[in-house]
Amino acid sequence: MILIFFLLITITVGGGFLWTIQEMVFKGKWTHFIFFLAAFLPFYITSLSVIYLATSSNLILGVFQVLKELIVLIAVLVFVFYNRKIFEYPLRLQITDWLMLGFLGLGFLYLLLPIGEASFMNKVLYYKSMLIPGFIYFLGRNTRFSDLEIKRLFGIIFVIAIGAFVVNLLETFVLNSHIQQFSGYALYNQAINDIDPTGNFGLTWTFETQSVTKRLASFFSDPLEMASSVLMGFAAGLIWFLTTKKSQNWFYLLIMFASLGSLFFSASRAAFVAFFVMIFFVALVFGLYKLIVGGFLALIAFAIYVLLFASEDFYFFVLDTLTFENSSSLGHVVEWLLALDSMVANPLGIGLAMSGNFGSVTDELRVGGENQFLIYGVQLGWIGMMLYISLIFYSIKDCIKVFYNSGNKLAARIAFVGGVVKFGLLIPLFTANVEIYTYVSWVTWWMVGYSINEFSSLKNRSLSYDPALELPAL
After folding, report:
1. What is the C-alpha to C-alpha distance for residues 126 and 352, in angstroms, rounded to an integer?
2. 275-301: per-residue pLDDT in tens?
3. Residues 40 and 216 sit within 8 Å (Cβ to Cβ)
4. How does pLDDT run across 295-321, given as a tens digit for each residue?
5. What distances in angstroms separate CA 159 from CA 38, 125, 222, 420, one per listed residue?
6. Is 400 helix (H, G, I), strand (E, B) or coil?
7. H-helix or E-strand containing 456?
8. Euclidean distance between the first and final Cα of the chain, in Å?
9. Which pTM value belongs to this model?
10. Contacts for 150 with CB less than 8 Å, ≥ 6 apart
11. How far is CA 53 from the centre of its chain?
């Protein structure tokens, strides 16, 4: 059976990669790299696990490991090749562009300077994890898609959202276990990442709650990645539901239901809070103040349920979470304090590959690591953290401007999803190294870049932001 899955992965991933290369190199459609990433990244770790379980070959595994970076680098090279007068390329940089350049430039400076105890190779690998999303942003920044191409991208996002929920149902009602227990996940982690199996399910502690109930991840790398990723599926389903005729929008209700179902299966508290924060933000964007009132009443109803009707275990689970007495919540606080202590002692940072959960950060050197803002603050200092925070702020701000002002409905949908998901991820950013969740991170950075391209066009046509403008026409 595992051999069949190995052959299926090899054919689909390899075929998809070769088709994308052919489209980019021979037809000049370098923009199509995003289709491969959107379809492959959710399955990335599961695919690698199956490949290693079936072959035990580091060489074959290494080929599949580099595909996601390779496709981005080839897209950059093809872009340069098909724009031979690259030095005559018109530059109309916006604030978000400057912030991205500043953030990547600061990272490159810290790569070259002899700062920190990490090896130069580990620093290179860590900087790669910063640079690739930057490349994706700038490729998105120069992309112009047809309506069909945008619909194709959203179609992939919808299939991923529904597929994740279907696999969750399979894990719950058919297998009664995580698919990672069959895919070779533990073996892959042990052999490649030097992480021994832990927890009651032989995976990692991330796959279970404190009361030893399963936290599912579907085909994603872990429950936390799935929880963050389905926010994008929900936001995409929501905007298509709100901007599609009522007789045709039932399908997008299904997308939202599937995304919300996967969120429940992940049992991620940060993602639950992020979901409600995202809904609140959407209500403000649309002026749906009744939705805000409804959300507040739902919160009160939840509090009443916890106080009066919930089981004792659930009551203390919620109480310990709110008071940070839950071991997981307390662990976040400890990591934050360690990171802040390092930033106070070293305001200019202690160097790359010294914080976070990325593979090139060794355990003996790691300082902090469960807060994306503080991870960059520890490594790049207060300047690096503020650049990243500013980049997130302007990404959200400009995406919403595009949503309000663009006459292109599909471009407005991309801007909506990019801006709303970046806003929704603010909560997970406080409790996890979210930028390593490549599916939601890379695809939304592409969406932000695409939206800034539209924003630049609007600005050049002297269109200014006006909240009173109507939503994109149906």
Report:
1. 7
2. 888 888 888 877 777 767 766 776 787
3. no
4. 677 678 767 876 776 666 666 666 666
5. 10, 31, 19, 20
6. helix
7. helix 438-460
8. 48
9. 0.91
10. 410, 411, 413, 414
11. 26
